[in-house]
Each structure stands twice: as C-alpha cells, then as structure tokens.
Amino acid sequence: MPGDDGARWRGSKELNTLLAAARKKLESNWLTVSGNITVHLGEPADLWRLCSAISRSSAGLHSRAKTTKLDLVRLDEWLAHPLNGGMGLIDTLDAALPLQDRKRIAAAKADTKAQALSEAKDLLATTPDQDWADRWLSSLLNQDGTLGGRVAVDALRKAAHVLAVLPVDGMSLTELAEFAVGDTKALAGGGAPRLVLDALSLREGIPRPSDPVGIRLLWETAGVSVDALSSRVVVLNYRVSEDHTVARWLNDAAAQGIPFPLTLDMLTRGPLTAVSDQVYVCENVAVLAAAARTLGSKSSALVCTDGQPSAALHKLLAGLPKHTQLHWRNDFDWPGLQMTARAIARYQAHPWRMDSNSYSAALDAKNSEPLKGHPTSSAWDPALATAMRESTRAVMEERLIPDLLGDLTRPTSHRPDPNHSDQSNTQ
After folding, report:
1. By three-state DSSP, how is residue 393 classified?
2. Could you report the per-residue pLDDT of 191-246, keeping only the tens digit for each?
3. What would the mean pLDDT of 19-41 be, rounded to a whole number?
4. Cis link prior to 44 (omega < 30° from 0)?
5. Within a 13 Å sphere around the CA of 391, how many CA atoms are in the beta-carbon half?
6. Residue 68 CB: number of other CB atoms within 10 A?
C-alpha cells in the first residue's frame, strides 16, 4: 500500500532528498509532473527503502545499488495518499517553498528581450549612415540572433531612445537623458551610457575610450556637452552680425586674421550669426594655422573641428543662416568619410576636395598611413571609397594645404562650385 510506511518517512532526510531532486526536475520542466528523476543511493542510508516503498517494488533494488530511477507520477501518488500527507507533489513542494517555473520565466525574458531588440531596430531604422547602427545591434546578439545575456533590457531601451535623438546641439547629459527617456539620471551610470558609447565608437570608427577625456570627446561627436568649458572649436575670420561681448571678440580677431578658440560656454552667451555666405570646415588645426599665417584676414571664413566634431562646433553651425554654403572636408580615411557623410546629411554641407581625383593626386604610398577602422562608402563620389579600398592607404589633410589655401583666397564669385570636384578638370 502507498501509505504502509508513510508515517516513518515524513520529515526524514530520505524524503527531503527526493523532494529536492523533484523540485529541480519540475522547475526545469514547466512544473509538469512527468518523467523520472535519478536518485543517487547511499546517503541517506535508507533512501533505497523509501524508493522501494514509493515504486511498490523492490525488484533489482537493494542497499548496494548506486542509483535508481523514480517515476514522478508514482511519487505524486504516494504523497497524495492520506497516510503520507494527503497533498500531491506540486502542493507539497509549494507549501515548503513556492516553485519557480524557470522555463516560463526564461520564455518571458526571451520575449521581453526580443521585443526590446525589435523596438531598438525600429527606433534606429531611419538613422543616417545606417551601417553603424546595424553593426552595433549585431554586436549585442548571441550566435542564434537573440539578445545577449549581458545586455539589460532597460539599458538597451534607454540607449536606443538616446541614439534615436542624436545628434543634438550642445545638450548636457542630464538634458539629453530627460529629453530622450524622461529621466535625468538615465545617463549618469549603469548600462545605458556604456551602450551609447559603444554605438558612438562604432559610428566614429574608433576604439571605445576608457579615459575621461576620450569619453568626453566621444560624447561631443554627437553634440553632447559633458564639459562646456573644455568643448571648443577654432575659427578664423568667422565674422558675425551680433554686437555682444563674444561677438565683438570674434570680429576683432577676424579683422586681425587671428585664430580664435570658441568654447561651448561662449556659444551659450548669445547668438552668433555668420555674415559670410561661404564657410569652410577642415579637420586639422594645421590647415587653419597655415591659412592664418599665409592669408590672415584675407582668408575665407574657416572652422576647424580639430579632430572629431565637438558639441561646440555643432552649436556654432546650428546658427548658420539658411543661405550660407558650408564646404566640408576631412582626412582621407574611413572616419573622415563617415564624418563628411554625416555633415552632408546634417547640414547639407558640400564636400570640399573630398573626391577621388583629389585623393589620387595626393596619394603617396611611401608617406601615407595604412587605412584603419571599418570601411565605409562615399555616396557623393563612390569612386573615392573604391580608390581608398584599392590603395589601402590614408591621406592626411595637411598634404592638400596648398590647394586648400588656394580655395580660401578665391573671391566669392570665383569660389569652387558647391559640388566642388576636381574630376571636372580631368574628364
């Protein structure tokens, strides 16, 4: 009878051993009473006797056996007998400690992760230069295409909403967090800012920085201000129409042909509206220094990003009049192409000597660096990216200084066509 030995086993080490094994089985099997559990005999000493009583048979089972299989249905029936407690297996286990349906919990987590991933893809579907967003999302996945266990769903959702509103024009981290997700502390720490920085490093084609300065500069590439005094842009002959303190500094420097560094803090002191109908942007400060030294106040308005575009630069260019033509160039490397593409998308900028002929004319394998980073395209001149892939060499902007200075000295009526390309002279 199922209850013959029930009283002696209640609360025993032997029964507790079986219940522990049954709990593990049920919690990994949708809480379904089916199948067997493997029982390791020997400890406690009389475990084999209890298994025999539950199985209603001792055939082939004795004290020297090492393991046996116990049918959970039999255990359920045995426990449900009035002499053995009168509660089935699930009720018995639940009374001691609530059962966890781990399969269902895992499935719910998988559904939540899949939904968060889908939402992130939708939010970033219209992102300019979609390649970086696709690569970022792919970096978060397991081999089976599911979201990796190291990625918190809440962090992913916050990061995706932040990335969807970038770039901005000089917002602080707290302003950005409030604007994007309605929580001023969302970017103060945790997984969300790390995910955003991972995405921005892919977008810029640079390793993810770990030092405070590198992190600040990476945020600034998206127009986010971490430090309004450190974020800056250098200009030459950038005359403005206003008459407040910073505006007068700019105009006085332009009259003398003196390069002038503008911090983000200065740019928040009042509007700065460029009066020139042509503004040129370079990447390397050596170009601006050469223009100041050679052309002085006769140079066209020139803005230098001094590397990755900063929050200060984006704040300055956000105030350009609609009629102003912005001519933009960078180094001939993969990050340079990416920055130029974003300038075209964000500011309708015109590529400035960023064409395949200018690249080929400046290319010198002996003095060029190998291309680094993730290859990208050049939609404004597809032949440029092709030529760079074929040569595998980068050309720094400084090599074009004589040609760039020539462009900066031309009268307004004779300046390069907004869609400037030296290809027109060689076809």
Report:
1. strand
2. 999 999 999 998 888 888 888 888 988 998 888 888 878 889 999 999 999 999 99
3. 90
4. yes
5. 26
6. 18
Distance CA 274, CA 262 (A): 14
Q: Kindly tell me the burial class for residue 323, based on how many C-beta atoms sit within 10 Å of its own C-beta (0-12, 13-18, 19 or more).
A: exposed
CB 325 within 8 A of CB 350: yes
Sort 114 into a burial class: Cβ within 10 Å, 0-12 / 13-18 / 19+: middle
Q: How far is CA 257 from the centre of its chain?
A: 41
Distance CA(139)–CA(125), nearest Å, equals 16
320 class by beta-carbon count within 10 Å (0-12 exposed, 13-18 middle, 19+ buried): middle
Burial degree of 142 (CB within 10 A; 0-12, 13-18, 19+): exposed
Helix boundaries (H) for 257-392: 264-267, 285-294, 311-317, 334-347, 356-362, 382-391
User: How many Å separate Cα 304 from the centre of its chain?
Assistant: 26
| Long-range CB contacts for residues 177-185, cutoff 8 Å, separation at least 24 | 181/157, 183/158
Query: pLDDT tens digits, residue range 283-324?
Result: 999 999 999 999 999 999 999 999 888 889 999 998 899 999
Cα separation of 343 and 418, whole Å?
14
Cis upstream peptide for 309 (omega within 30°): no
Is the distance from CB of 244 to CB of 252 less than 8 angstroms?
no
The token pair that represents 33 in the structure block: 């009473």
In one letter, which amino acid is 86? G
Token pair 């255990």: residue: 75
Could you report the per-residue pLDDT of 352-378, keeping only the tens digit for each?
Answer: 999 999 999 999 867 788 998 889 899
Q: Which two tokens stand for residue 237?
A: 């002959």
For 273, phi then psi, to 5°, come to: -100, 115
Which distant-in-sequence residues (6+ apart) come within 8 Å of 144 by Cβ? none
pTM of the predicted structure, to 2 decimals: 0.63
Over residues 108-167, the pLDDT tens digits come to 887 888 888 889 888 888 776 667 888 898 888 888 777 877 788 899 999 999 999 998
C-beta atoms surrounding 414 within 10 Å: 7
